[in-house]
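Interim report to the steering committee. The following record documents the input for Related to MEF2-translation elongation factor, mitochondrial (970 residues).
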Amino acid sequence: MSLAKLCCSSKLPGLAASRVVSLAPRTTLLAGRTTPTSFSRSTSHLRLTSSHLIRNFTSSPIFLAAERAAAPQAEAHPISLLRNISIIAHIDAGKTTLTERLLHLTNAVSSSGAIPGDVDSGSTVTDFLEQERQRGITIQSAAVGPVWWPSPSPTPSSAGKKKRDTVGITLVDTPGHIDFGIEVERALRVVDGAVVVLDGVEGVESQTENVWGQAARYDVKSSILFVNKLDRMGSSVAQSLRSVIRSGLHQRPLLLQLPVPVEGRNEPGISGVVDLVEMQALTFSGKAGEVANRRELKVGEEMYEEAKEARHALVECLASLDDVLLEELFGLPTGSGEEPHGKMPASSLKQAIRRQTLAGTILPVLCGSAAKNIGVQPLLDAIADYLPSPADKSEVVGTVTGSSSIISKDSAKGEEAGSAGKEISVSLNDKRTTALAFKVVHDKRRGPTTFIRVYSGTLHRSSVLFNTTTGARERLSRVLFPFADQYVETATIRAGQIGVILGLRDTRTGDTLVDISSTPNSPSNSKSTTSKPLDANESKSLRLKKVHIPPPVFSMSLEPASKSDVDSVSEALHLLIRTDPSLRLDEAGASAGTGTGQTVLSGMGELHLEIAKDRLANEFGVNARMGAVRVSYRETLGEEVGVLEVRETVERELAGKKIKIGAEMRVRALGEELGRVNDADAISFGGNVINISFDSGSNHDGNKAGKEGKEENDIEAYLADSPRQSKSKSSKDSSTTSLDSSRPGMDPTTLATMFKTGMVAALSRGPLTSNPLMGLEISISNIDLYGPELSSSAAISYLLSRLLRTLLRTKPKLNPDTGLPSGPAAARTTLMEPMMSTRIMVPEVHLGKVINDITSEQGGLVQDVIHAASSSEVSRGETGGKEEVYIPKSSNRFELQSSAASSGAKGKSDGGEGGGKAEIHAVVPLANLVRYSSKLRALAAGNAQFSMQLQGFAKVSPSRQSEILQDLGR
């Protein structure tokens, strides 16, 4: 029976003949085979099993049957053949277009007419949100995979024959707009390598540097650079490489390809690439460039000499870094004056490139045009050959806090919270399941959908996870692999894989998940001084490095349209901030300080809040009035304020329940130390350092419990209904307690979480303007607890807010005649405003006017001005950097056409005066940049653009503070 007839028969109900995907030309169907997908490199096509051909056009462009075939293969695939990569770049560099081509070539997706998804038509797989398709930009990261690609490098099999391995690639596409930087943070936290996409016309741009820095934060040091858009007027590989070196992105961009210009056309373009490793010319054909045609580059061809020179520089650079290749180079024969570089085998070069890419000493550079389907297949080959597998990465380091004293302190080294505990490495070979939740998505049908990276063990459908951040147990309902907005069910997710789990109710971005019922970790993997493996109780306090959440700088107010909408608005907002942790919610909290009774939502930028507003209205159906977007300020202690201390015990009714709790709080300003608060947990407190010390018993008088002779306010009495604590015999600190894991219940880590949650609420509103507090070191000690009923989480939050409010407000002056307060209590805080690191691209002819405006009108400080290289600097082949970095010649027709067109365009845009553009680096207050775009266009005759990134917050002058308070209506 034919496949079409089979699909129309009653044996496959619900499938119509129209849902059968037609095969691309020359694609071979291996009917009846149920083995994993095989590949034919000779035809440059994937060989598909019959199950791969079924597709549901009504739901998604994903091959649903292919998903079912991929899952069992992923479960058994060797870890060394897995790649977790992210696509990162500046906005409009072509990330999404490239991702769609990658997915199309791996047969993960198929669109109408067997062509990849397109941004302009809104048919992309990774940009599936309605807002993304309407605006043509990426708003949230999208994971797809694993998808399968045959490695071009053969591997000797056990039988002595050579075979090609199939590599499983999980792609994570990310936004390029700075407002959605949290999506880049989340992606880079869990991937092992990255593809950096560069616009061949613009070179390295501001957000390119930003995402590169984000990758460095998570030790993603293995990357490939793809110079895109080489079909456009003004594009230049040489200028792109110079921008990489000049910007400090990398000092050794290693060019692996040369672009081949279009023959016989008097216009810029690219028809293929020259592979310098293989010395082959590649051209691409088919509907979407799926057919790659290779031929040897011959002596006497137009690009042969340049390719020979470039390959010589490639070998020279690698040999200077790689001892293995250097030794092989010295062993190659030389004759008749010919250097051995040309005789270096391609396989040896590939191995050296891989070794140095994994070490981060080189940045392999490929080129092409994703929109024209040129150079995408070689990029897939490079991902398989050069980027690391999970097994190539070093073990992940976490911290285990075996004490009830949970301390978050600043560290120039960026150590994680819980530095009082021991460090332990989490290895792929560990048996106990350890995972990190890096993203949570709200799905109306599925509920909370949690994206995870498994670092050790194997996650099963039956696993019961413990969230070490919240102290909650989580039971899974389903285990899946992600394909953008669709998912593939699987039985397991193994160490090194990225997956999706359903059913988690209390998990947020950055939470660590462990399976405490699984086999303990091997003691050989621990970096701590003890050789004892982690027990279930210690595993409960294991914390992996979190996802860095940048502070919000813009805010808008929300107010339910009616009282009946209050609950629905609150629920929608909490769902929204759970999916996007870079949004901060102050729910009706402003009423305490301003009397407005409004809820305030803060985000990374105007576009960020605009998207949030749109999602609330259309996705969540919120009926609320939303105010205008405004700058979000911060409050901190004034310079004249020293150390503040207060102690109080609160006994009262709160929300109809009696509470009783006491503690001592000490607050001081961080000062210069604020710039060194790199600790992920400290940053989550808004740039504050929080120290929480739990004593085993209080030194203050308390009512006797009458039970075992303990005081009511003893920590041990508080935890009497939970696992019993006893003083650690081996501890040098008598106040440190250890936990007996024989009984279930609350542990010190959970208690610390309650205090930390309370501090987050207390720090969310300052006394001056109800803006968040930052730059404080807060120590909480001598805590008196009176049992879980009296000293509940609500009581803890109330006490901490009360203590902080008491410290930050001065007592009002008394009227000497009446003895009564003569006015409201003054605040001990002062305002800080966000300062933006700003880059402005402007024609040289308008440079003076723009600089004058920045310094005089915008209150900014110009730090540097970079002038573009003149055309004479790009007229020859050259080397640069420390180790013979090859910069290609610009004398070939492709570069000359591009340069001439670019120069002509610049001359016109500069008012006929010629010259290039300059880049201004300045630090400017955000408040002065809100409407700066129109001002800049007027100054530069419409031919300038700027970008900005948060540099930090700075204290304002008294006069500036008065202006801000007046604008805020204070």
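The mean pLDDT is 75. The committee is asked to note this result when reviewing the revised timeline.
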